[in-house]
């Protein structure tokens, strides 16, 4: 992911990561924006502040719309917070898709070995003129395009399927 991370970009993460020992400290020092997903009012307030920061300080935000890591080899339904944020700030969404990492990461087996995954950056999706009423359809449309690419790059023998091939131009080694 670090290969495609644009300048002046801040990730958004669940607040629980703040308490994950040295990883949480590193996230905090790196300026990660923490969202308390259990307190909806607080999360909405933070997202409103982030929308203002996007515009006033020319910052980009990296959001994982599934909300949590998926361990079944597909994509979970998207949470809509990121889409509300983009619509509120009237900024484009740049979908970034990572192939499956099941060949080298398995939480159940407590396995995290070396491997490769592909990362594909999709064309920006404009949000100019959209309103909060458009968010559900926007989220569905973006998820559908991402899921199509996820399936393609996770089964083509280079990302998530065969970790022995050398990385190409659009792959990131892990």
From TrEMBL:
It comes from the Eukaryota. Transmembrane segments: none annotated. Pathway: Phospholipid metabolism; CDP-diacylglycerol biosynthesis; CDP-diacylglycerol from sn-glycerol 3-phosphate: step 2/3. Residues 1-101 form the Phospholipid/glycerol acyltransferase domain. GO terms for molecular function: 1-acylglycerol-3-phosphate O-acyltransferase activity. Keywords: Acyltransferase, Transferase. One of its GO terms (cellular component) is endoplasmic reticulum. InterPro entries: Plipid/glycerol_acylTrfase. GO terms for biological process: phosphatidic acid biosynthetic process. SMART domains: PlsC. Its EC number is 2.3.1.51. PANTHER family: 1-ACYL-SN-GLYCEROL-3-PHOSPHATE ACYLTRANSFERASE, 1-ACYL-SN-GLYCEROL-3-PHOSPHATE ACYLTRANSFERASE ALPHA. This is 1-acylglycerol-3-phosphate O-acyltransferase. It comes from Myotis myotis.
């Amino acid at each position: 992911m670090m290969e495609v991370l644009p300048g002046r970009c801040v990730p958004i993460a669940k607040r629980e990561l703040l308490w994950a020992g040295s990883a949480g400290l590193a996230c905090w020092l790196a300026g990660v924006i923490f969202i308390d997903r259990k307190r909806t009012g607080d999360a909405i307030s933070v997202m409103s502040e982030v929308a203002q920061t996007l515009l006033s300080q020319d910052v980009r935000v990296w959001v994982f719309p599934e909300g949590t890591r998926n361990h079944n080899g597909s994509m979970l339904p998207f949470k809509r917070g990121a889409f509300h944020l983009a619509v509120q700030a009237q900024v484009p969404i740049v979908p970034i898709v990572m192939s499956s990492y099941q060949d080298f990461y398995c939480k159940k087996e407590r396995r995290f070995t070396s491997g490769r995954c592909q990362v594909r950056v999709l064309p920006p999706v404009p949000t100019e003129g959209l309103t909060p009423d458009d968010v559900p359809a926007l989220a569905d449309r973006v998820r559908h395009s991402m899921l199509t690419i996820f399936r393609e790059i996770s089964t083509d023998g280079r990302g998530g399927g065969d970790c022995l091939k050398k990385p190409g131009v659009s792959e990131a080694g892990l």
